[in-house]
Amino acid sequence: MKKLINDPRAVVSESLQGLAAAHSDVVTVHADPDFIVRAGGPRSGKVALVSGGGSGHEPLHGGFVGEGMLDAAVPGPVFTSPTPDPIVAATLAVDGGAGVLHIVKNYTGDVLNFETAAELAEAEGATVRSVVIDDDVAVKDSLYTAGRRGVAGTVLVEKIAGAAAERGDDLDSVAAIATRVNAQARSMGVALTPSTVPHAGEPSFTLADDEVEIGIGIHGEPGRERIPLEPADAIVDRLLAPILEDLPFESGDRVLLFVNGMGGTPQIELYIVFRRAAEVLRERGIEVARSLVGNYVTSLEMQGVSITLLKLDDEFVELWDAPVNTIALRWGR
Amino acid sequence: MGLDSRWAEAWVRESARVIAEHRTELIALDREIGDGDHGENMDRGFSAVVAKLDGAESATPGDVLKLAATTLISTVGGASGPLFGTAYLKAAGAVTGTQELDGAALVALLTAARDGIVLRGKAEQGDKTMIDAWSPAVDAASAAQTDGASEAAILEAAAAAAESGAEATEPLVARKGRASYLGDRAIGHRDPGAQSSALLLRAAARTAAEAAS
What we know:
- The structure holds two protein chains of two kinds.
- Chain A has eight helices and 15 strands.
- By secondary structure, chain A is α/β, with parallel strands linked by helices.
- In chain A, the strands form three sheets. A six-stranded mixed beta sheet of chain A has the order 1-2-5-3-6-7, sandwiched between helices.
- In chain A, strand 14 and strand 15 form a beta hairpin.
- In chain A, helix 4 (153-166) runs antiparallel to helix 5 (171-184).
- The radius of gyration of chain A is 19 Å and the shape is globular.
- Chain B has one domain (5-212): DhaL domain (Serine Threonine Protein Phosphatase 5, Tetratricopeptide repeat, Alpha Horseshoe), CATH 1.25.40.340.
- Chain B has helices at 5-21, 23-33, 38-54, 61-75, 80-94, 103-121, 131-146, 151-167, 192-212.
- Chain B is globular and about 50 Å long.
- Classes of the chains: A alpha/beta, B mainly alpha.
- At the A-B interface, strand 5 and helix 3 of A face helix 4 and helix 5 of B.
């Protein structure tokens, strides 16, 4: 293991200290319990958005705290859900009286800890709604599994629901929009290399030099199949086909195409992926009306990529284009 | 003579010791079919419980279990935190106010723990989860108690059944938790949560045997 760290157990707290030092104009970082809130305190009368989960997926979620997106992010240990205590603390810290929406990726640990936290926060007088994100089409048989996982589509939910909260929608409306974005988004990823959790010290799985894992989750959990490495275009086709047929996305649809890097894949390759994905969509008569390319939902240093399609309507476009001022997404001001 | 709060405290301390001892093994099991954090999370949680015990006065076994429950919920994280936390919380609730646990109380404690995990995690026996250790343990403890076994023998039966149950998860396909994403590839690997559950129940049996001797 070769990493730029000090004590493996201090990785999350030291990184948060750096984030606080770098971005105090946008966020305020609380330590013990650890959570990140929008600078300037709770916004009175605005629905507050809280998300969180294991660390190691940066900039998710702390990089999306700020105007027009999240009010708080709760980072757990690397690849491990935060416990209920910091989630409760963050929820109460950002509650502006209009209620709090929890945005939870569908992983058993996240769901159980956020569920417990929501019960505890409600006992403290907060009104909490929860939306569970499950955009990953790689999980085939949801009946016999913990269900589809929440992956890169989470960013799109956080941006669009965040804009809805910023324009003054009430809690039920913001929850409904978040649910609708999740319902219209589909994702699938591929890993070329594994990642190494700092305190574990060894890669979380193994792949031969010429092998890739299709349908990977954001912690390196496996997906559909392991195949020999192919040219980028062939891999993109393998990722897109199940996404397209699942919703389904059809000729005449307008979409947001999101090509997400897993942390170790350079931008130059992400654009090669985007090029092919856009080509396939054009051939099918699907209009790419908005796009996002970059490392937004990562898996430490994993080499890999995920593709997310969101079917757009006018409201989604308006909310996507609305101003946002966070560490990782910033436009329209 | 039943098992008192000194036993409960010894059980929790022994649990922390064996979890620390098997930390690397649990991490390795979890890396096979999960995300490799189970040993780390359990070690962090039980170390915190021991630190809390050092500064607390616990009059009954229920007090000890409740302290363990709230500490595990707030320190373990992942799925294991709410699951084990709920187990200890329900176990504490089943023996509230009892100074010395007899066989019937032990069976009630184990049953409540198992039911708490089922309630929170919505898993069934055979899903390749910690339930596959807890359910046979409850059945074995109950059978031993019906046969008139001592407290130590009841916990010995529970521990042995949990160990067999954990081993029996190896050929299963997972239907809950992160291992469920593996499909057939989970076959041949032991469930880490079932393994840590067996370690905890073995710690209960060992400390009960020491208390009886």
